[in-house]
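R.M. (postdoc): so does anyone remember the format we settled on? I'll just put the structure tokens first.
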């Protein structure tokens, strides 16, 4: 049997009970999809969870995946970083959004992702259906970045300084 291609799924974990409905639907969808799919295999960020920060294992999994799926209902910072990394690595992207969560659609449509098609997340079936139908956004890097204006090798880093001088922000500035 040929090795299955990886779909990496990023989403906000359980936080203050806000994401429980989404997390339950995502985990159920992953289990169902992996049980029946022969070409793809879905892994969530939680399979690489070691700390609260994004690990090298997560970035390596994103590099190895064919498709990057994410739930942007809450515009979670870690998920947005991972999405940006996947876009930079020119991965096909599948975005989910639970429109029943108050103001999630409004926040999404006001974000940099407003031109990117998303799939409504209602339950596990909506997720597996989107995987099966291939509702992927491809070539997002070209949509967001004029590649011709980017140097082949660059050592620059974009850093937005925090208004609050936390130890982490002071260490970065230093």
């Amino acid at each position: 049997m040929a090795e299955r291609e990886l779909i990496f799924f990023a989403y906000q974990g359980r936080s203050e009970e806000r994401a429980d409905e989404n997390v339950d639907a995502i985990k159920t969808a992953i289990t169902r999809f992996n049980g029946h799919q022969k070409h793809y295999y879905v892994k969530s960020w939680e399979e690489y969870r070691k700390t609260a920060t994004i690990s090298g294992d997560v970035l390596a999994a994103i590099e190895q995946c064919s498709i990057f799926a994410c739930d942007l209902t809450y515009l979670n910072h870690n998920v947005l970083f991972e999405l940006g990394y996947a876009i930079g690595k020119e991965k096909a992207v599948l975005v989910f959004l639970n429109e029943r969560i108050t103001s999630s659609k409004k926040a999404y449509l006001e974000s940099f992702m407003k031109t990117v098609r998303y799939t409504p997340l209602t339950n596990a079936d909506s997720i597996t259906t989107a995987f099966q139908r291939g509702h992927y956004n491809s070539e997002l890097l070209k949509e967001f970045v004029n590649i011709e204006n980017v140097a082949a090798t660059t050592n620059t880093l974009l850093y937005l300084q925090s208004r609050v001088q936390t130890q982490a922000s002071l260490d970065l500035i230093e």
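R.M.: ...and that's the designed sequence above, right after the tokens. Also worth knowing: The longest strand covers residues 5-10. The CA atoms of residues 142 and 148 lie 10 Å apart.
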